[in-house]
From TrEMBL:
<dbReference type="Pfam" id="PF00551">
    <property type="entry name" value="Formyl_trans_N"/>
</dbReference>
<feature type="binding site">
    <location>
        <begin position="12"/>
        <end position="14"/>
    </location>
    <ligand>
        <name>N(1)-(5-phospho-beta-D-ribosyl)glycinamide</name>
    </ligand>
</feature>
<dbReference type="InterPro" id="IPR001555">
    <property type="entry name" value="GART_AS"/>
</dbReference>
<feature type="site" description="Raises pKa of active site His">
    <location>
        <position position="144"/>
    </location>
</feature>
<feature type="domain" description="Formyl transferase N-terminal">
    <location>
        <begin position="4"/>
        <end position="181"/>
    </location>
</feature>
<dbReference type="GO" id="GO:0005829">
    <property type="term" value="C:cytosol"/>
</dbReference>
<feature type="binding site">
    <location>
        <position position="64"/>
    </location>
    <ligand>
        <name>(6R)-10-formyltetrahydrofolate</name>
    </ligand>
</feature>
<keyword id="KW-0808">Transferase</keyword>
<feature type="active site" description="Proton donor">
    <location>
        <position position="108"/>
    </location>
</feature>
<keyword id="KW-0658">Purine biosynthesis</keyword>
<comment type="pathway">
    <text>Purine metabolism; IMP biosynthesis via de novo pathway; N(2)-formyl-N(1)-(5-phospho-D-ribosyl)glycinamide from N(1)-(5-phospho-D-ribosyl)glycinamide (10-formyl THF route): step 1/1.</text>
</comment>
<dbReference type="InterPro" id="IPR002376">
    <property type="entry name" value="Formyl_transf_N"/>
</dbReference>
<feature type="binding site">
    <location>
        <position position="106"/>
    </location>
    <ligand>
        <name>(6R)-10-formyltetrahydrofolate</name>
    </ligand>
</feature>
<comment type="function">
    <text>Catalyzes the transfer of a formyl group from 10-formyltetrahydrofolate to 5-phospho-ribosyl-glycinamide (GAR), producing 5-phospho-ribosyl-N-formylglycinamide (FGAR) and tetrahydrofolate.</text>
</comment>
<dbReference type="InterPro" id="IPR004607">
    <property type="entry name" value="GART"/>
</dbReference>
<feature type="binding site">
    <location>
        <begin position="89"/>
        <end position="92"/>
    </location>
    <ligand>
        <name>(6R)-10-formyltetrahydrofolate</name>
    </ligand>
</feature>
<comment type="similarity">
    <text>Belongs to the GART family.</text>
</comment>
Amino acid sequence: MLTVAVLISGTGSNLRALLEAARHPDFPARVVVVGADRDADGLAHAEEFGIPTFTVPWHEHDNRDAWGAELGRQLEVWSPDLIVLSGLMRLLPASLVAQYAPHIINTHPAYLPEFPGAHGVRDALAAGVSETGASVIVVDDGVDSGPILAQERVPVLPGDTEHSLHERIKPVERRLLIEVVQHIATGELALTS
């Protein structure tokens, strides 16, 4: 059974989808802990499913490395096989990535390498493209630059706003995340950095 730690910053909609999938007896992975960089609303999903949580507030640390060191200490308690960044809006320090690489994956609301960074949906709209997408990648030292594990196109419709487009991307992102975690757990997908 693949053990998974999930790190979030916000509402945790991808986390909830993963928790719902993992509660089925035939799903080959279990979420063992959920962490956040703030008092995130999504921690309530973990509590509802009886999953332990921890918070490592960004503002309580002098710099990214100090924050990452504490995050690493919290993760070590659980020894997860896989770490899922699910809406974590902080870049992990290189030392933490190196500690767990290539066993950290991230979801992104764009068809990478198109529109990396924190504003993928907004950037796609600003570029006037006819389609964008969702991706699941291995985390490396760059910004959304790791190996792509799964991705799917999502059309940009006339009159789309950042909100409406993101709402259409989210279900695709959730489905891809669940599929990737399942395929990693069954050995159908090998992680490489």
